[in-house]
Structures are given as structure tokens and as C-alpha cells.
């Protein structure tokens, strides 16, 4: 545009009400999008794989086949080298054993489990040495592809927490991996089933076999 | 915006003019943006590949291969089926057998044998399933010749560490627990050293065929 060109009579102001409106709209959009954005924890959260009842469920790199579960008041286990006589493992709540088979699909490692009760609390397994049953207790058991391991996870929990308990299974022996699968199995324990489990529970279950 | 000689201003004639005038800045910003994304991605990929190597160097059984500042060779592969309680392996599972892979490594002059100790081994089948060397159930096994699963040193008779010496062959053994039904001859064995200084080409590993 040269100096000699006629200057247009009506020029638009370069910043008018339309621009203010655009700016305001952009700000509102930014705030709304940022509020709708998932936070870091949600973005790297474990990926839930839902299962129900006694079934085989696959996660990334592992599978669990739940065969059954049982409640007991205490366990009777064989003694060890320092205490040869049989010992009773008592609990301030009840013992829940979940029997099943673990498979590693691609890589070897350890598969862990925990219980989530309906009020959101987590109960870890009681540990590989409680009860100390080699070849039965699945806690910290090494699983390799083609070599599935059968056994049981053992939990101690208050009797009123049985109802609505979910079994959660994940790869590794720490916490559920971020952005890794977390298999969540609803064991299907309603109020009647919980009562039946407690009624059927033996006060002392003999595990010496 | 253009300033005229009479002091008034006006919008430029067309928006495409602005893009043309600022093309150098735009190109620069684009290049910077690409570099800012690509460099951290490359670094992260290299770090990941240190532990998950994906670039195989194929080696036939008995052949020598150059890797991580040393020469490597798979001397022997054998399957042990007597693995139950009372055997040297003392495995609980009777449906598993133990694959023993014996390797020889000759460090180049100037290679620190301690750095070779970080080596890891694995065997894998055609479906990509993996088994790792000396897993937990085999942790109680002791080799009668005191061979270790570490590639650069082992514990000697007097519990003193014996190091691999440059130019001299050093023998080590990797053990794998496999399902008995598995045809081990069709497996492949891998050796990788996750050391930045020794392995220039991060992500590479040695892949030995077992037959």
C-alpha cells in the first residue's frame, strides 16, 4: 500500500467489542478444558479389568483362575524345626482363603493379590510365611510362562467385611503398576452368602496334609 | 500494521503477507519445536532400550561374537530332567526341567570385568514368551565347579572374587527353569549388558541359537 492510495473512510478499530468477546470465550474455554482434564494420578492409574465369581480372568502378562474360597476361624499347621508340635494360627478376625491358579503369559515374575472391601479398605495377603505352606501359599510365589502355579491366597479380615469383598490381582510384588492391568474380581458375596460362609466356617481348620 | 507518511495506520493488505514476512521466524519456531520433542524422546527410548534390548546380533552355536567390549561364545547347551527334591536343583515342580547354557567370554584389553557383571540372560520362544536366567526356584543351586551366572567374576574356593582377565576365556553358566513339554532346541538365548560405556549401540543384544 503506497502513500498515494486513498485512505478508506471507515476503518475498523483493531480492538473492539468482538475481540473482547473472543478473548473472554477463549478464557472460559481454557478454564473449562483445564477443569475437565484428568489429573496425573488419573492418567497413570492402573487399568481395571473386571471379573465376577469363579472364572478365569486375564490381565497383561498374567491370568488368574479363581476356583473357590473358604472362611475359617483359625488354621492348624505343622510345626517347624524349632517348634515340632503343631501350631494354631489365630486371627482377631477370620481367615479367608481364595483358591486358584496363576499363570504368567509372557514373562516370569510374581503376581500379588489384595482384598478390597465394600467400604474401600484394602486387606493385603497375610504373607508368604503365614500360614507357612510351601507349594500352597501363593503370596510371593514365582510364576514362569508354561508353569502355572496352583494354591491359595490367605487374608485376615473382620467378619463383617466379607460381604461385597473384591479380590484384586496385579503383576509384581509391590503395588498395582501404573498404567498396568489391575484385575478386580467381585467374589459375589452378598449378605446371605457372607452369613453362610461364617456359619460353615470351621473354628480350627486343619491344614496339615 | 503499516505506518503511513501522514501518521495514520492501516491493516496490511492481506493476511498471507504476514505469513510471508515472518516465514523465517515461523520456520525457526517449527524446527525448535521438533527438536524439543525429538531429543527427550530419543533419550527416553535409549534408556528404555538399555533394559529392553530389541536389536539382535545373531550368533550360531559355537561361534564367536563381538559385543560389549568382549568376545562371547555359547559353548554348550544341555537339558537336565532330574530336577526334583534330592537332586542338585531341588525343584518343587516335577513337571519342569532345567536348561543349562555354558558361555565363554574373553574381555578385550581395557574392558573392566566388573562392568560385565551387569549382564542378564534370557531365553525366548517363537511366540515371544521369556524365561529369565537363574530364577528364584533355582537360587539354592550351587555349581560343583563354582561357575557363576555373572559374566565377569565369580566366587572362588576361598570365597575371594575371581575376575575375568583380558584376553583369557572366562566360563559362566546360565540356568533356566522350563516346562518339561517345551522343545528347548527351538528356543533362542539372549545376553545383554545394560552398560552405556561398554555397549555403544544401546538396544542391541546377542542372540544365540541353541541348535
Protein architecture, described:
The complex is a heterodimer of chains A (209) and B (211). Chain A has 209 residues and is α+β, with helices and mostly antiparallel strands. Chain A has a single domain (46-206), classed as Sandwich (Immunoglobulin-like), CATH 2.60.40.1240. Chain A has helices spanning 17-36, 40-43, 191-200, and strands at residues 47-52, 56-59, 62-77, 87-104, 109-116, 122-124, 142-143, 149-157, 166-171, 181-186, 205-206. In chain A, a hairpin with a 2-residue loop joins strand 2 (56-59) and strand 3. The N and C termini of chain A lie far apart (99 Å). A 5-stranded mixed β-sheet of chain B has the order 3-13-12-7-8. A 4-stranded antiparallel β-sheet of chain B has the order 4-5-6-11, with no helix packed on it. In chain B, strands 1-2 form a two-stranded antiparallel sheet. Chain B has helices spanning 15-21, 23-51, 113-116, and strands at 2-3, 9-10, 55-59, 64-67, 70-80, 96-107, 120-124, 130-132, 153-155, 161-163, 170-179, 188-192, 204-209. Chain B has 211 residues and is an alpha+beta fold. Chain B has 3 helices and 13 strands, in the order ββααββββαβββββββ. The radius of gyration of chain B is 28 Å and the shape is elongated. Chains A and B meet through loops of A and strand 8 and strand 11 of B.
Amino acid at each position: 500500500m503506497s502513500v498515494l492510495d486513498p485512505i478508506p473512510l471507515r476503518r475498523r478499530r483493531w480492538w473492539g467489542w468482538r475481540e473482547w468477546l473472543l478473548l473472554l470465550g477463549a478464557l472460559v474455554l481454557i478454564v473449562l478444558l483445564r477443569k475437565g482434564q484428568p489429573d496425573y494420578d488419573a492418567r497413570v492409574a492402573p487399568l481395571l479389568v473386571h471379573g465376577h465369581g469363579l472364572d478365569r480372568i486375564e490381565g497383561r502378562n498374567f491370568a488368574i483362575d479363581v476356583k473357590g474360597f473358604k472362611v475359617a476361624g483359625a488354621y492348624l499347621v505343622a510345626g517347624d524345626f524349632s517348634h515340632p508340635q503343631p501350631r494354631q494360627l489365630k486371627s482377631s478376625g477370620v481367615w479367608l482363603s481364595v483358591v486358584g491358579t496363576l499363570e504368567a503369559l509372557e514373562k516370569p515374575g510374581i503376581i500379588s493379590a489384595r482384598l478390597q472391601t465394600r467400604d474401600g479398605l484394602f486387606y493385603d495377603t497375610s504373607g508368604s510365611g503365614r500360614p507357612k505352606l510351601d507349594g500352597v501359599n501363593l503370596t510371593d510365589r514365582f510364576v514362569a510362562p508354561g508353569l502355572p502355579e496352583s494354591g491359595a491366597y490367605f487374608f485376615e479380615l473382620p467378619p463383617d467385611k466379607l460381604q461385597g469383598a473384591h479380590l484384586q490381582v496385579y503383576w509384581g510384588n509391590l503395588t498395582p503398576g501404573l498404567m498396568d492391568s489391575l484385575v478386580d474380581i467381585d467374589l459375589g458375596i452378598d449378605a446371605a452368602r457372607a452369613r453362610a460362609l461364617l456359619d460353615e466356617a470351621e473354628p480350627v481348620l486343619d491344614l496339615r496334609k | 500494521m503499516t505506518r503511513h507518511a501522514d501518521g495514520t495506520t492501516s491493516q496490511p493488505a492481506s493476511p498471507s503477507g504476514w505469513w510471508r514476512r515472518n516465514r523465517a521466524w515461523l520456520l525457526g519456531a517449527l524446527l525448535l519445536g521438533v527438536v524439543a520433542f525429538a531429543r527427550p524422546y530419543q533419550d527416553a527410548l535409549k534408556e528404555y532400550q538399555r533394559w529392553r534390548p530389541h536389536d539382535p546380533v545373531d550368533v550360531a552355536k559355537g561361534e564367536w561374537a563381538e559385543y560389549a567390549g568382549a568376545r562371547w561364545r555359547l559353548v554348550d547347551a544341555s537339558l537336565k530332567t532330574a530336577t526334583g527334591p534330592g537332586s542338585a536343583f531341588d525343584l518343587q515342580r516335577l513337571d519342569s526341567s532345567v536348561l543349562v547354557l555354558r558361555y565363554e567370554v574373553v574381555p578385550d584389553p581395557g574392558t573392566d570385568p566388573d562392568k560385565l557383571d551387569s549382564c542378564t540372560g534370557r531365553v525366548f520362544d517363537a511366540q515371544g514368551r521369556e524365561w529369565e536366567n537363574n530364577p528364584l526356584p533355582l537360587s539354592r543351586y550351587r555349581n560343583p565347579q563354582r561357575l557363576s551366572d555373572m559374566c565377569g567374576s565369580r566366587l572362588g574356593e576361598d570365597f575371594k572374587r575371581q575376575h575375568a582377565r583380558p584376553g583369557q576365556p572366562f566360563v559362566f553358566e546360565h540356568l533356566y527353569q522350563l516346562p518339561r513339554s517345551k522343545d528347548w532346541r527351538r528356543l533362542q538365548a539372549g545376553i545383554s549388558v545394560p552398560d552405556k560405556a561398554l555397549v555403544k549401540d544401546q538396544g542391541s543384544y546377542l542372540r544365540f541359537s541353541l541348535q
